[in-house]
Amino acid sequence: MPYFLGGGLLLWVVWQAASMVGILAAGTIPLHWGLGFAGTLAMLGLTYGLIDSRAGWVAAAVSGAAAVAAYALPLKLNIVVAIAAAVAAWLLTESLTRRAGRDGASA
C-alpha cells in the first residue's frame, strides 16, 4: 500500500505542477500559433518517451534535419522525406550496431 500511495502522490504532484506551469505560461504563447503548436508539443513529448536506443536518437536527429532541409517542397512533402530518412537512418544504425556486436563478440 505505501508503494502505491507514494507513486500516486508523486504522479498527482507532478500533474498539478505541470498544469500550473501550463496555465501560467499560456499567456506567453501567441494566439496565431493555434492548437497546431500544442499538438506539436504533445507529439514531441510522446516521441521523446519512446526513444530508447541509439538508433532511435539517430533517426530522430536525421528526421528533423531532413524535414528542415526539405521544407521548400510542395504539398508538405518534407514530412514524407523526413519519415523516409528516419526509417533509413534507423535501419542503417541498427544494422551497424548489430554488426559491431557480432564482430566484437567473435574477437
Q: Termini, distance in Å?
A: 50 Å
Percent in strands: under 5%
In terms of structural class, how would the helical and strand content be classed? mainly alpha
Quick one: biggest sheet?
none
Quaternary organisation: single chain
Describe this entry's structure for a reader.
There is one protein chain. With 107 residues, this protein is mainly alpha-helical. It has a domain at 51-107. It is built from four helices and no strands. It has helices at 2-25, 34-50, 54-69, 77-106. It is flat. The relative contact order is 0.07. The model has no long low-confidence stretch (mean pLDDT 91).
Keywords:
107 residues; 81% helix; 4 helices
Give a quick rundown of the structure.
With 107 residues, the chain is mainly alpha-helical. The protein is built from four helices and no strands.
SSE topology sketch:
Layout: H1 2-25, H2 34-50, H3 54-69, H4 77-106
Helix pairs in contact: 3-4
